[in-house]
Design brief:
The protein is mainly α. The protein has a single domain, classed as Four Helix Bundle (Hemerythrin (Met), subunit A). About 75% of the residues lie in helices and about 0% in strands. It contains six helices and no strands. The termini are far apart.
Length: about 200
């Protein structure tokens, strides 16, 4: 007589499988962004004057505001998870909606930053600094959009008859969102604070 061990509903690690998958994905993203930062440092050291003049064209006040917005969104994301775990659907919706608003606010501010640059004839082809500026902040912006989309879906599902009760998926999305915030916390000083910039 033989018996088969079924662990399909209980991860061997004690951690939800999706969370492990997200950690692996984020590890690959860290390596990806590390390449950007390495390129920035190398090109900066080779073109110090160009990077200094480029940084002078950035608006550190808007970037500081955006940093505060993303840090706040990490808090509201954590609170949305906490309230879903407690079964408080109303607060889950409220904090998730605020997180979404923060994401949109960040993108709107970046839109105004970009349009101001284009208005002054500054494009990714202007020099190596702005090539990396648009590449790195643009790629980060795509990650913000990628986080907002599933948030909207979860929020919409919470208004259906069955509601939304999958805490694990919200936690996984929370990990992703915290990563997006963390990347910006590194981008902000590298782009805006290494050299004095104008307000």
């Amino acid at each position: 007589m033989s018996a088969t061990l079924d662990l399909s509903h209980e991860p061997v690690t004690g951690v939800f499988h999706g969370k492990i998958g997200m950690w692996l994905f984020l590890a690959s993203e860290i390596m990806f962004f590390s390449g950007f930062f390495a390129a920035f440092i190398i090109l900066r050291n080779a073109n110090l004057e160009t990077f200094m003049h480029g940084a002078h064209e950035l608006n550190w006040m808007l970037a500081t505001f955006n940093t505060a917005v993303l840090i706040g969104s990490s808090l509201t994301m954590a609170l949305s998870i906490l309230n879903l775990e407690r079964g408080d659907t109303a607060k889950f919706r409220t904090f998730l909606f605020i997180t979404i608003l923060c994401g949109f606010t960040f993108l709107i501010v970046k839109y105004f930053e970009y349009t101001a640059k284009f208005h002054h004839g500054i494009t990714p082809g202007t020099n190596s600094f702005f090539g990396l500026y648009f590449l790195m902040t643009g790629f980060h912006g795509m990650h913000v959009v990628a986080g907002i989309i599933p948030m909207w879906w979860m929020l919409a599902r919470s208004f259906t008859k069955g509601g939304y009760k999958d805490v694990h998926r919200v936690e996984i999305l929370g990990l992703y969102w915290h990563f997006v915030d963390l990347v910006w916390i590194f981008l902000f000083p590298v782009m805006y604070l290494i050299f004095p910039t104008k307000g």
